[in-house]
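User: My collaborator sent over this chain with a note saying "see what the structure looks like." That's all I know about it. Can you take a look?
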Amino acid sequence: MELRGMYFSLNLFLPNELSVNIYKRFARDTAVYGIASVLPRVVNVLLVGLHTKVLMPEAYSVNTKFYVLIAFFNVLFTYGMETAFFRFFTLYEKDLKVLRTAFTTLLISGVLFVLLLFGLRSPLIDLMDVDERIYLIFISILFLDTLTVIPYAYLRVMHRPLRFAFYRIFNVSVYALFNLIFLLWIPLWVREGSPVYKWYVSQPKVYYIFIANLIASFTTFLLFLPLIFRFKLGIDRGLWTKMLRYGLPVMLAGIFYIINENFDKLALDYIAGSDIMGAYAAIYKIGVFMVLYITAFRLGAEPFYFNQHKEKDAKTQYANVMLLFVIAGTVLLLGVIAFLPWIVRIFIKRPEYLVALDIVPVILTAYLFLGIYFNLSVWYKLTDRTRYGMIFSAIGALITVLFNIYMIPRIGFMASAWATLAAYSVMALLSYFFGRKHYRIPYPTGKILFYLLIATALSFWMYEKWADNWGVKLAILVGYILLVAGMEGRSLREVLKNK
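Assistant: Without extra context I'll predict from the sequence alone. Here is the result:
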């Protein structure tokens, strides 16, 4: 890939009517997927306010560890089959044998995993430090969520974003409703001193969060049943072997990703204490604004990448999508820092959590690099070199583990934030340089670096020097937007002309 510098032109961004329609469909799907991913995560962020109100940091750390383990075992239960389904369903021109093989495989393996976890319940309960009820809830959530992985993926690859969004929003709505019932309304409704009230207060409040999740997963599975019943069961052995070979490196990459995302919290809990870990985990959730953005973008971009890879201008489209991602991501980075005091007042309800506030600009920047890495990963997914994703994630996980273990005793929780940034930025750089060799995409590297350097420098400057000065922060944000508009004005006018 040639480096074209800061002055790379987007003249080819919308070269003809076909490209206009392609980008419009991509934008429309991304917008709908954005709602489907943003709204549930916004609800989860809003629930942080409720959770930090009813739970002290020590109890919040229990909630965090539960979902760290859910995330880890979700990767094991699905072992890359979702990504393999995307790859082979589009490669085989939407052949239903791919759908049958993927769903049947996860159904059978899901049952086997549940039986295995149930058989090992005694040592695992001791390892997880939970009671048997919570462990059974844990297994049930894992199994139910596994059964909906392929149905969700099927809706995405068949370009049914509205239905996909409905199921996602339904799931989080049920979860939020029962959080409110268990944590807020029952204490108001039930007469104090009654047997029901005595039983209710005898349970740890974090237990009700897990029950709410189980109810949401079960009702969502029931909602999917009409679609699932249309899936015929069966496994094509030759196809299954190919999908497994493709998916296992993705699974390993997923495990390393979970380590990158969550080892910091486990390390803090062990080294610094559950109160510090709880505060860190709650403030870390503010990074969800960047996560919302990259998740929405990824949900729309992943099917787009696979569906467009046969087009002659596919690489140019991928390069343009990356530039747009970075531009919007840097604007979001500055926007969150500008409005951070307001955001904190909404989502954090106890002052005990604010000790970890300094991690916010670091975590936001780290997630921006993670989003860049996700976009760069198109090269190894389209060339069936998914082992590279595994290798990059393994390197990131190694950085995360070593940095946390060595630096937490020296600089505290900030070590965990810097470890996350170091891991994701190294992963993005590795993917970029190896991608140049195997699948050269003409990224406008100069412009991308320019926007990243300017935006990250401004974000840290705003946080450190102008935290309470709304006027200066808004001026910086507006100035950056005007800078982008000036540099990309021609491309924006082209988009408007072709609407």
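A starting point for your reply to your collaborator: The longest helix spans residues 17-54.
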